[in-house]
Automatic annotation (TrEMBL):
<dbReference type="InterPro" id="IPR033116">
    <property type="entry name" value="TRYPSIN_SER"/>
</dbReference>
<dbReference type="InterPro" id="IPR050430">
    <property type="entry name" value="Peptidase_S1"/>
</dbReference>
<keyword id="KW-1015">Disulfide bond</keyword>
<keyword id="KW-0732">Signal</keyword>
<dbReference type="Pfam" id="PF00089">
    <property type="entry name" value="Trypsin"/>
</dbReference>
<dbReference type="GO" id="GO:0004252">
    <property type="term" value="F:serine-type endopeptidase activity"/>
</dbReference>
<feature type="signal peptide">
    <location>
        <begin position="1"/>
        <end position="20"/>
    </location>
</feature>
<keyword id="KW-0720">Serine protease</keyword>
<dbReference type="InterPro" id="IPR001254">
    <property type="entry name" value="Trypsin_dom"/>
</dbReference>
<keyword id="KW-0378">Hydrolase</keyword>
<dbReference type="GO" id="GO:0006508">
    <property type="term" value="P:proteolysis"/>
</dbReference>
<keyword id="KW-0645">Protease</keyword>
<dbReference type="InterPro" id="IPR009003">
    <property type="entry name" value="Peptidase_S1_PA"/>
</dbReference>
<keyword id="KW-0865">Zymogen</keyword>
<dbReference type="InterPro" id="IPR018114">
    <property type="entry name" value="TRYPSIN_HIS"/>
</dbReference>
<protein>
    <submittedName>
        <fullName>Trypsin-1-like</fullName>
    </submittedName>
</protein>
<feature type="domain" description="Peptidase S1">
    <location>
        <begin position="34"/>
        <end position="265"/>
    </location>
</feature>
């Protein structure tokens, strides 16, 4: 679901899962995915996007992303910080329910990672990515509203997390888009869970689900957490995936509303 804040970042902030603070991993080393979710059609969540990275065999899914305007997607900084100076290594794919086929592809013109992003703690794990051409909106491609700076999510609020990542910790990937319903938990509860790993800051949001446990996982990093048709979180990190002791950790979008608006304006 996210990046693994661990001595060996398994993935990428939900492109990775966390078990300890990362010490020397790069964004391409991290993991993410949806655990105990259900297949979902892209027309139900047309804001979902995939970041793909150029590899010897073509293009490989790297992280999730979310459409926030017709020329920008939002993702986790840990997914793209290694490519800020060479955005041509990545492309955005939208409008598909499949991990590696279908949809429309857009090359990337610019990557703006948060200037205070810290790989060691995954604080400020957010980035704006600009597409080289305007995206054409349709039933399968559309933007989602971002949380306002004043949004306050009640404990227990239900939200939907989605992505093309793995379906178990260090497990196999799903060939189709998956989603899972999770609930927001108290900041204090999350802080206690991660007390010996890393601080839970105001820019982070935690959520989980039980019976069965549900979570984002490797390959899902950078993807959306949406509540009442508003983007409230971006998949960031966690300890393992769907571990009952460790909630999933997301970048809290409301804390970065002005930063997002300002930087989308620079694209």
């Amino acid at each position: 679901m996210k990046s693994n804040i661990c001595a060996a970042f398994v993935f990428f902030t939900f492109s990775t899962t966390a078990s300890a603070l990362p010490t020397s991993a790069t964004s391409s080393d991290l993991p993410s995915r949806i655990v105990n979710g259900f297949p979902i059609d892209i027309t139900e969540i047309p804001y979902q996007a995939s970041l793909r990275r150029s590899v010897a065999s073509g293009w490989a899914h790297s992280c999730g992303a979310v459409i926030i305007s017709n020329n920008a997607v939002l993702t986790a900084a840990h997914c793209v910080d290694s490519y800020v100076l060479d955005p041509s290594v990545l492309k955005v794919v939208v409008g598909t329910s499949y991990r590696l086929s279908g949809g429309q592809s857009y090359m990337i013109s610019r990557i703006i990672a948060h200037e205070q992003y810290l790989q060691s703690t995954l604080e400020n794990d957010i980035a704006v990515v600009g597409t080289s051409k305007t995206m054409t909106f349709s039933a399968s491609v559309n933007s989602v509203a971002i949380a306002s700076s004043t949004l306050s999510l009640p404990i227990g609020s239900e939200a939907l997390v989605s992505g093309y990542g793995t379906t178990s910790y260090e497990g196999t990937t799903s060939s189709v888009l998956q989603a899972a319903k999770v609930k927001v938990i108290a900041q204090e509860t999350c802080a206690r869970a991660y007390l010996r790993i890393t601080p839970i800051t105001s820019g982070m949001l935690c959520a989980n689900a039980t019976q069965p446990p549900r979570d984002a996982c490797q390959g899902d990093s950078g993807g959306p957490l949406v509540a009442d048709n508003v983007l409230v979180g971006v998949v960031s990190w966690g300890e393992g995936c769907a571990d009952a002791l460790y909630p999933g950790v997301y970048t809290r979008v409301s804390e970065y509303n002005s930063w997002i608006v300002r930087n989308v304006g620079l694209l």
